[in-house]
Design goal:
single chain; 306 residues; alpha+beta; Diaminopimelate Epimerase, Chain A, domain 1; 2 domains; 17-stranded mixed sheet; two-stranded antiparallel sheet; globular
């Protein structure tokens, strides 16, 4: 029996995403399959967004999110936009409600092709981020990389967008920093018991900033939607920016930008940006064996190609 399901290779601002259609099934994409797919240059990804049948009334699907090391992820804004684009093309609908580990996400596709995702409310309490020790003010905690008297990075703003984030404020291009070396050290720092996403943020005006992220469980990524949300919220929280900013990703500036608004009315964070379909195929969710389509047939696969 053929165990394969449809999937689409997509990206959100360069953030490599596999959207896997697990609807109608009770099993899951296994960590072994994720690791196998991540090791292949053609299917290498940052996150897998596995679409399952809804678990609760009022939602359209349950989204299971996996990192490239096989671990679970609570949130992925760029991946959520990819799911919306695929399902909108399949169904003709423009609005969706998803359930994830992090909670309920509402999303909509606009006439210009951009997609907005309600990423929920940010969390600032130290024990809910979580941190390993108490900090009364999480907008600036004691953490640094480099010599005590001349640290390379220091005093990050920390918070949760359903997953833990640390935002380090810098005064120049994020590409000038060796995040590939610092990222793993900071992700796994003892202060973060559940590890953390590490972002460098360069504020260029009250309404713009440039970011670069070392993503928890995925490493150096071209883009990270939840990190962009965390950077935008932290910028407004510390008085560096307004509550609505445009974020350019330093490692893929030619792929567009994200608009992030931290709404004053309800404290929710709305992320708006593009998604891009690349190609389609079928995959064994247990072992990770895959095959590329030649006719772009199937469910979410063929529709999202149109």
């Amino acid at each position: 029996m053929d165990n394969r399901v449809d999937f689409a290779k997509m990206n959100g601002l360069g953030n490599k995403i596999l959207v896997v259609d697990m609807r109608g099934r009770t099993d899951r994409v296994t960590p072994a399959a994720a690791i196998s797919l991540a090791a292949d240059t053609e299917t290498r990804f940052d996150q897998i967004m596995a679409i399952h049948d809804p678990k609760i009334d009022g939602t359209d699907a349950y989204i299971d999110i996996l990192n490239c090391d096989g671990t679970k992820a609570q949130a992925c804004g760029n991946g959520t936009r990819c799911v919306v684009q695929a399902l909108a093309a399949e169904t003709g609908r423009k609005t969706f409600t998803f359930q994830t580990i992090a909670g309920i996400l509402n999303a909509a596709e606009h006439a210009d092709g951009t997609i907005s995702v309600d990423m929920g409310k940010p969390v600032f309490e130290w024990d809910r981020i979580p941190l390993a020790e108490e900090f009364y003010d999480t907008s600036k905690i004691e953490l640094q990389i480099g010599p005590i008297d001349a640290p390379v990075l220091h005093s990050p703003s920390v918070m949760s967008m359903g997953n833990p984030h640390a935002i380090f404020w810098i005064d120049r291009d994020p590409m000038d920093f060796d995040l590939e070396r610092f990222g793993p050290l900071l992700e796994n720092h003892p202060i973060f018991p559940e590890k953390a996403n590490i972002t460098l943020a360069h504020v260029t005006s009250k309404t713009t900033m440039t970011t670069r992220t070392w993503e928890r469980g995925a490493g150096l990524t071209l883009a990270c939607g939840s990190a962009a949300c965390a950077a935008a919220v932290s910028g407004a929280r510390t008085g560096r920016t307004d509550r609505k900013v445009t974020i350019t990703v330093a490692s893929s500036p030619d792929r567009g930008s994200l608009t992030i608004e931290w709404r004053e009315s309800d404290s929710k964070v709305i992320m708006t940006g593009p998604a891009e379909w690349e190609w389609s195929g079928s995959v064994d969710p247990v072992g990770g064996n895959w095959q590329r389509d030649t006719d772009n047939g199937g469910s979410i696969v063929g529709a999202s190609a149109s």
